[in-house]
């Protein structure tokens, strides 16, 4: 009992329409590295924000070192000895390390003194970092060290780390782990959030697994297999409907060693993705967010160009072609972000119909817009996909998320693509609309088109996909038939262990 | 306590009312300013806004409205295309100068040859001069990612010094008894930008401005280019998804605005101004920015705003002559107009709420 640092007792937090945390209770002991596991949407970030004072729970209590703990804001949490390193850093590129750290402190000492303390801490914990370097020149790993040292200068009792290794090189991961072990030996507790099961097995002494906002299990990761943890994360209750095996047609779209550098800082590089997408099939691509889904979509839509031979549409190299040239050839896409990417919020639905449909629907002539045809096309989408709106003259912004999603997906489907790639087609969409969208995708495939569905919703992929592959750190696993795929196998493909076990089984 | 609350969608009424209210507010503020300067505010405002149109000498001032308004509208139309796409060409003044220099260069080089081809050639040269000057910030932005606001603005100063150098050197009138400034192009029949109807103020620049207004309207409302411009301004990522080539759009928008500014310079140097001189440029390129925004970046709005700004130029001149109003107070007035517009524009996207005072 006495070694419990933080006790969570019945924490519940509900947002409109979703219960993020439901009666979460567990203990973090002093000096342990405690992992928090769960799929996207399992409630991990809400829980962490509650502990760090960014979110106030609806009910439940926390006890820190025997005292009631209810931080109203992060400052209170820091004062109580709770520090957090976020997944995304909040640093000023133009300032140096010491200045950045001073900005985050309540009462910063003079810069020279602070620089000395930074050097001392960085040496003590094996985190090489020069206090006078400009942050803009630092690597992602070094930036993370700035954040960690900023936390360590507060002498925390509990250090929360959100997906710390997602931006690190393997060597930087090693340095980080040594630091964390050292901290833990000094009695600091570390609350470690990650999707990477092997890392957790190597580092953590204790793990709590969240699913749909509830604690569904705890384990000692050192003695539990990645497979067993994946099973707890995903849940054994995946709804796997039986689907008639579709006779796969010829490969329409071929990805041949598709690679691309990250399009922005902290993006994911695509690494050597090879894949055949066949006519008449639905290929599901799963994966934890940030493993290259958006980047894959950009490379397929033509917003990011790759080498010509990396992408072939019916044997025609298209890697260097832009979005409209690809549309003309029959490759259509629907990005994840509806507002501002798939659709322009301030523009009318007619104009948004024009956005991707101008070429295939013949909405222009000699560059001049044919407004009547565009309006007819928008009206067809609205009618066919049951988009709830007074009419095509309304702005995209005025539609609810689900309705706009129906419009965006419908816009692509009605253009009769040969290949349709959609990202998160039912994200944030109510059940009825989601079912309608899935059915439309299945109908499209039944009509002979190749459909690629990128989604984090495994139930969805199991329901509609013929084959399943997982993205992990920009790499795509070997696609496998969805029929007969077990929950454990899916979990392993998602967790990145597919290199060993899954590939072994497929052989 | 007044609180601002974001509107669900931009208020239609306010987007029309904001420029009108801004004009009214500026008049009130201007009146206070004139009163502080010791002038009768009402008389001053009447002198600036009423007399040029309906006063005793309106027959003289009304044509001036075209002469001052045409370059403003011509430049503002070009700028509005870029502004709608989020491409900020602030250097129209420089492109205006370079267009004038290129056109004058052609005209002066061919002097005293008389041919019907000279004027069209100068029009072409004016457009190309402005276009090339605008290509510098455009290509730097596309190739190296520089900020077009800074580069285009700094190039204004380069253009001004080039103008001075030309007026004092290369283009100086050899028969000008050593005075700075070029030959008077408006007295060179083949090069002169004359009034189409004598005494009306309608020179070829007015025709060009009207053509630009109509073309811009058609492009924005009926052409894919206009759609791409609007889309890029509102949602850059959606534009990329729609296949809009962002770099090409920068080149097109900067090029068009540069060419139109160059044209404005050409019509000015061959007509109302007549010659290349050190003080040839009077700030049309900067005032056109105000015109573009005051006109809501809409072609028809720009015509109205251009007329209003032309009026302040003319009325300012009258007030300067008859009431001894300093010219700076007119510039202050013009700047105040943009300032009020930006302030009033808050109402387009927000509404005011009277909130109960909270004790903190």
Strand content of chain B: under 5%
Oligomer: heterodimer
Name of the CATH homologous superfamily of the largest domain in chain A: P-loop containing nucleotide triphosphate hydrolases
Taking the alpha carbons of the first and last residues of chain B, their distance comes to 13 Å
Give the neighbour order of strands across the main sheet of chain B.
Answer: 1-2
Structural class of chain A: alpha/beta
Model regions low in confidence, pLDDT < 50 over at least 5 residues of chain B = none
Task: Please describe the biggest sheet of chain A, giving its number of strands, its sense, and whether it closes into a barrel.
Answer: 7 strands, mixed
The assigned CATH architecture of the domain at 59-306 in chain B is Orthogonal Bundle
CATH class wording of the largest domain in chain A: Alpha Beta
β-sheet strand percentage of chain A = 15-25%
Could you explain the architecture of this structure?
- The complex is a heterodimer of chains A (507) and B (360).
- Chain A has 507 residues and is of the alpha/beta class.
- Chain A has two domains: 4-234, P-loop containing nucleotide triphosphate hydrolases (Rossmann fold); 251-345 and 400-506, P-loop containing nucleotide triphosphate hydrolases (Rossmann fold, 3-Layer(aba) Sandwich).
- Chain A has helices at residues 44-51, 74-79, 97-103, 111-124, 140-152, 170-185, 197-203, 226-234, 293-301, 323-329, 349-357, 371-384, 401-413, 431-446, 458-464, 487-495, 501-506; strands at 4-15, 18-29, 33-37, 59-64, 67-68, 82-85, 158-162, 189-193, 206-211, 214-219, 251-260, 270-278, 282-286, 311-313, 316-317, 331-334, 364-365, 368-369, 419-423, 450-454, 467-472, 475-476, 480-481.
- In chain A, the strands form five sheets. In chain A, strands 13, 16, 19, 20, 21, 22 and 23 form a seven-stranded mixed beta sheet that branches. In chain A, strands 6-7-8-3-9-10 form a six-stranded mixed beta sheet, with helices on both faces. In chain A, strands 2-1-4-5 form a four-stranded antiparallel beta sheet, covered by helices on one side.
- In chain A, helix 11 packs across helix 12 and helix 12 (371-384) packs across helix 13 (401-413).
- The longest helix of chain A is centred in the middle third of the chain and has 16 residues, at 170-185.
- Residues 237-242 and 497-507 of chain A have low confidence and may be disordered.
- By secondary structure, chain B is mainly α.
- Chain B has a domain at 59-306: ABC transporter involved in vitamin B12 uptake, BtuC (Orthogonal Bundle), CATH 1.10.3470.
- Chain B contains 14 helices and two strands.
- Chain B has helices at residues 12-36, 41-49, 51-54, 58-84, 92-110, 118-144, 148-168, 204-222, 224-234, 236-241, 246-270, 284-294, 299-323, 327-349, and strands at residues 2-6, 350-354.
- In chain B, strands 1-2 form a two-stranded antiparallel sheet.
- In chain B, helix 8 runs antiparallel to helix 13 (299-323).
- The longest helix of chain B is centred in the first third of the chain and has 27 residues, at 58-84.
- The two termini of chain B are 13 Å apart.
- The chains are: A alpha/beta (507), B mainly alpha (360).
- The A-B interface holds A 301-303, 322-324, 327, 333, 335, 337, 340-347, 351, 354-356, 358, 364, 367-369, 371, 395, 397-398 and B 8-10, 222-225, 227, 230-231, 234-235, 237-243, 245.
